[in-house]
Protein 1
Amino acid sequence: MTFDGVPGLLEVKESYGETTVVVETARLAEACEYLRDELGFDFLADITPTDYLGWGTRGVAGYVGTAAGRDLNAPGSQGYARLPEPKPARFSVNYHLLALREGAPRVRVQVWVEDGEPVPTVIRVWPTADWHEREAWDMMGIAIEGHPNLTRILMDEDWEGHPLRKDYPLGGEPVRFTGAE
Amino acid sequence: MAVTERRALDPDVYKAPPQYEGTKIPYPVPSVREVPEELRDSDDVMQVNFGPNHPSTHGVLRLVVDLRGEEVLGLRAVVGYVHTGFEKTMEHKQWWKAITYPERIDYVAYQHNELVFVLAIEKLLGMEVPPKATWMRTLLTELNRIHSHLVWVGTSGLELGAISMFWYAFRERDAILDLFELVSGYRMHTRYFQAGGLAEEIPAGFYPECRKFLEWMPKAVDDYESLLTANAIYLERTRGVGVISAADAVALGLSGPNLRASGVDWDLRKREPYLAYREVDFSVPVAPEGDVYARFAVRLEEMRQSVRIAAQCLDRLEEMEGEPWIADDRKVVLPPREELHTSMESLIHHFKIVTEGYRVPEGEVYVPIESPRGELGCYLVSDGGPKPWRVKFRAPSFLATAAAPTMVGGTLVADLIAVVASLDGVMGEVDR
């Protein structure tokens, strides 16, 4: 199968036996429509946003170290053997597609956005995107554009922040009710 | 009990009218059924909350229902009441310590969640798993599939008033939990799968006990047929209720038994065989009707097929006496306990894995398996460190719950309960 005809195609990557098609964010809906109608990817399995804030700067658990490797001034420190590949933007949004036919071909469509940059909705292409996109907004703060009902889904409606972002602390839960009030 | 000869999937038990033409998916929001325009201001329409803590909601689910008399005009599902942030927590745990978390996401089909996470780690590591571990994983996940369907058939029968069904189903469920306890020491949340294989050797005495259960189970399924398939009330409550067409089911991302009950022959165990499914002989039950009854019939037959698969796994495992149950990769797998007393190398490896964890190569993977609820996917991103960068589970219950409003337009409120129950949503998995 060739992905040359996908509108807004930026890159086709192969790793771990999986194909990733990187497309322009603005032409995402168009690309998805092409994949569904021309290449037969009729089943949207999943939408997953990922936050890459701080990618490649993290130390190793239990040791004092730098991202690039051993810190010579701190004996016993240890870093990565090599730094991970840099990413083009802070967030990736991944659409895992499946074609319900012989051989069960799968493809991952990927777009890259900065904080607050809009991502067009694919709800007109696959209605199942409804809750996935609400979750992407709720958990990661991806600004889905054109969704008819973009509200929080797992957190409360008046919740502040997006819990799965890397700058949202673990256990960063505000106290909702106190005895003082 | 008098055993019926009728089988739920037999075409003469029930021939449904053909699925509807066109689409029933609500517009513009696929997961919200709105009251028709002309009835919005009517005094006859009443909005009622089902849940979050109603006994007929299969967990903590809130349904906002618009009723005119007993007729359901609008429906919206509100979820998130048991959101626990598993995905966030797992980002802060080492790979091997994170394995305990996925099991708690879907607390009915726990071994499937555990398996998909372990398979994804193994894919990133490029690890070979010994055949004994693969066959044991297949066996246990099939037992877990029976367990999950038993909980479903028991509770969904309960919601339609078939109380005795619940006790029969939980009798067999308990036998499965005994088997899990025998293998891993825990009845639920077994944490028996490990990157590279199994956590421990399969204990002596498991095979004969499991064999006994597999001989008993098909007779138990015949009992369920007598209780439900031959039960006129049950048939009246489920036939032709909550119909969804094949096209709508695919568009809404339904998977597993829900999709097969709409006539789509799609099972990842056949289409993208993982574990040992390429080598076992089984069939995939499909029903064309797309109603609540079809979803019941498919799951009932799946239990029989799971017994078949499990028996074949048992045959193979019994020939594998003395074979390794975990890969011999000292950078990932804990060394055998007895070596720690004699080998410095093993002690160092043990210490490094326990304190620091193993490193998983950089990359992203998506691994799908067929859980009892459908396509369960695990998307992992690793930056090459000892902890996952991102973990995401594609939860089939999440999509099934979102599809409920498509199935209920114009049905009665009592049917709404049947429809929601038939989708087999586990709220822990919906909310993660």
Protein 2
Amino acid sequence: MLEITNLHARVEDKEILKGINLTVNPGETHAIMGPNGSGKSTLASVIAGKSGYEVTEGSVVLNGQDLLELEPDERAAAGVFLAFQYPVEIPGVTNTYFLRAALNNIRKNRGEPELSMTEFMKHIKSKVQMMEMDNSLLSRSVNEGFSGGEKKRNEIFQMAVLEPVLAVLDETDSGLDIDALKTVANGVNALKSPDRATIVVTHYQRLLNYIVPDFVHVLMGGQIVRSGGKELALELEAKGYGFIEEELAAKA
Amino acid sequence: MIDLKSTPHSLVENFDLVKGILSTYGPDKLHALRLKAFDNFVEFGLPTTKDEEFKYLSLRALTEGQFAHAYGATIDRYQVEQTKVGSIEAITVTFVNGEYAPELSSAHALPKGVFVGSLRDGFTVYEDKIMAHLGEVANLKGKLGSTNDERFVYLNTAYLSDGAFVYLPRGVSLEEPIHLLFLSTADHGPLVSHPRNLIVLEENSDAKILESYLGMDGIYFTNSVTEVVLGPSAMLEHTKFQDENLDSIHIANCSIHQAEDSIYTSNNISFGARITRNDVNVWLDGEHTETWLNGASVGLGEQAIDNHTRIDHAKPNCNSFEVYKSILGDRALGVFNGKIFVYEDAQKTDAKQTNKAILLSPHATINTKPQLEIFADDVKCTHGATVGQLREDALFYLQSRGVPKKEAQGLLVYAFAAEVLEKITISSVRDVLEKALFDKLKESQELPEQSEA
């Protein structure tokens, strides 16, 4: 479903991704772990199409579509969703207005009819409950004055509403207490299906207790240096990233 | 300046035609004020861009035009209902071309002692109170500033005929909003009207007022003055909505006098008129006052919108917060001048001023000038001005959710101004103005079509 081949990307003159290869099949959950500065968030941003990153080599293909050719909104229409590490506050735009505009654009692209306000409200009602969100958040401006936990909940709520094919969670666990973490994980798990996939980018193993990955990849120095099953995450938690560095040094 | 002693001008010539009838409105003392103001007006002339206070705003359409003194015109209730603000539930006082239109106003049972109506009717009940304040707020006598300019206030006072009068006695809290509605229509040639409003809130009283200026047909010049007097601990939310037609000139002075512990909020919204000049002057004359000046302007086509504000921190321990925003497209011109004077005695002043502009077109212009003059040493004063593009991070966020770039830009431009409208606590007014903002932005060449909420 998602095929990343030899992906190189840089910010200004600094090369950050140095040849990423990753295949994600429908129904799978992949965790990308790594120390700070390893390129995890860059990978997430490049998939979503954030400006400021220059792809110098390689490709990112989702269901046969070259994502790198598409604008961010076209990627969303193709089924990509990025849950931001730092969700953006947009005073003056209400959550409901924004989300309905987003959903209707995605539906239009899929050739589905737009939803009226009533249909839209019906569509989101269960998602609001699932994310244990206060209804009043809907009529408030996007993320404005939300607590850290509310912002992250709102990200997953948006994801639940937009029903993406590929969800990329960028450090969604950072700044969450255990209850919020469980709610967020529930939201992600509820969306799991044989034709969708999830990439969880995280520094810590903690979130992976709740969103159990099929594969764990370790990103270091802009490359995936090791891949394994969910037990790799536990090993990293126990030993830290140092042991992989040592192994790599020993090999070299 | 244009010397009116040597240059003939309708704004001078009209006076001979109407001073006789004007003298019959209100007490003799008032007519003395008119005569003195007229002399001042002729003496000081009309400003040009060589005058510091009008440096960026060309008034040639005014100085080279001819304007007849306006008389009322017939507008029916249906026409009023068709306007953007026609459906707002409020205690409404309507004026057409500066004349009170009782048939378009709403009668309401008001608490004892409260007056909401025309100034002329007000004289029959509250002459002393009116004369105690009229002309005493909208002046810069003895105030700091080397470029103080009161010419359009002189002009308004010279022709003072009618306007709205609102009076709340001590301790009255008026739940229902007040709507002062000024309509202009000039289908028989250019007209000038000079609405004069007085709002007096005695100690501990509290009101919400919408003051709107709307235009129908023709070329006209509205030259309004609104004086606001807030007693101790009084509270006023004052929203002004200016949506004059695009051939008109709108010059408005709003002057506010705040006593101790009072709270004043101004939401100053300008979408209309070919030329707009707003002066909002706040005089803080008691300790522990709070002042919020919020402004949102949208200028498109050839519109020019000039906002001048001044806050005189004359007493200690007062806070003022000011945010003015402009959206300018096509060849529109925006001006912002924000003066804050902190007087020698005004220790512990906290003043914060922000001016932000978005230019949608390479031919649109904004001139922004914060002007802080501080004569006390223990104060907190900040100011900031940004002229810019839309926030990249917000744009990416919207796009990443599926909103196309053009639409996301439109949404952010709307949000930029809507943030100011959110300060309005009367929901019916806020809804109407949000819709008006939406419609106004639709006229822009640079923004894409938006679907409605």
